[in-house]
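Worked example (supplementary).
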Amino acid sequence: MIEFEGVGHRFGERVVLDGVDLRLTQHRVAFVGANGSGKSTLARMVNGLVVPETGRVLVDGVDPARHGPAVRRRVGFVFTDPDSQIVMPTAGEDVAFSLRRSDVPRRDRAARAARALAEFGLDGYAEHPAHQLSGGQKQLLALCAVLVGDPDVLVCDEPTTLLDLRNKRRFAERLTGLRQQVLMLTHDLDLLDDFDRVVVLDGGKVVADDEPGPAIAHYRDLCR
Amino acid sequence: MSAFGLHEPGSSVLHRAPAGPSLLFVLVFAATTVALSSPWWLGGACALVAAGFLVARIPLRRVWPLLRTLALLVVLILAVQWWFLGPAQALVVCLRIVAALGVASLFTLVTRVEDLVDAVERALGPLRRFGVDPERVGVVVGLTVQAVGTLAGIAGSVREAARARGAERSITAFAVPFVVRTLRYADELGEALAARGWGDRGADDVTRADTRSNFN
Ligand SMILES: Nc1ncnc2c1ncn2[C@@H]1O[C@H](COP(=O)(O)OP(=O)(O)O)[C@@H](O)[C@H]1O
Ligand SMILES: [Mg+2]
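After joint prediction of all chains, the assembly is encoded as:
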């Protein structure tokens, strides 16, 4: 469970988040809102990359502001641009990189990485230069590298923004049926049908918080 | 395709050589080229590196960009050094650079970064009790190799964009987007590493034990 308690934040003079109170118990929660509405800032608070100025965040009762590294081990994060989250030259090495801090023994890492890649439809790409994969494959690789560490929570910050329609769908399919609680920030409203809860942010405030149908309708009104 | 920093899969002797000793060889080889000052010996060193590329069967498409970069460097350095030191000295400096960069890039072509990181980790293991974190150093070495490739890639696409706008001669048309994109890459990479648990200086090893129970 993820809780935001009276979370507020400013960058310089600009108020980015203002009095956000949320208890996220649902398995799949989405955040929508215009550019600059504070989605990314809120998401980064979940793993302590941003520390709220006021209020606090709790991930299963643990405050990422105080126990950042411990929380980050439990919270996987997928960013918008796969090129900056793939940190090793080949797909296999990048997945194995995630296993370095786990208790998987060194000699098992390559095999384990290859198996994980296969699950994501990337079998045969272990030795492939990661930066030469297609955009969709890269984002699947990023997701694979995060999930191989078996986090409890998965946060995705606009993971499909750079993908074409088919790859958007493919990525979204990968997110269904995961053991992990999923928080997804997105502009792709048609991917949200099977989400349990959709939170709409505007100017750093929660302006709607409902099932996908009504929440998305509210968001569409807002954009008119 | 970048000149440096990407592994070229293969099965040659050089590919199969263990990463640790290979790295040691590369370091000793590079140091030796600095110590040598006979153009004949240095020419021999360059020939040895070239032979290494043949033995490793590195395809031409990978050798080309490297040669182009080296040629550009050599021309620049030759011009400057010739002016200051005369032709003989200039030749020696250039041969040294070709040999050292050549052997380093051959090494990155035949060694998987993962293996390199492991080798560095093992080599630094004994220094652990002096406060060195071998895992961290290993990862930094691996990332450096990878970053060189990425920066070369950014440079390539920025140059392409500048050319598309007819600004291939403009230094600002290259430098401004290159710096912006490099900084953004560094920023995002730092964040992605932190998210994957690598930004932390083992800081909460103390607190880890007491937080773990809360997750289960
Ligand atoms: N590191 C930062 N420094 C200064 N301002 C920032 C920083 N990160 C985000 N902002 C500002 O905070 C606001 C909200 O940003 P963000 O959380 O990224 O929104 P969203 O993800 O919804 O587009 C924006 O106005 C943005 O310019
Ligand atoms: Mg954002």
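Two points are worth noting when inspecting this output. The longest helix of chain B spans residues 134-164. Residues A 39-40, 157-158 surround magnesium ion (ligand 2) (CB under 6 Å).
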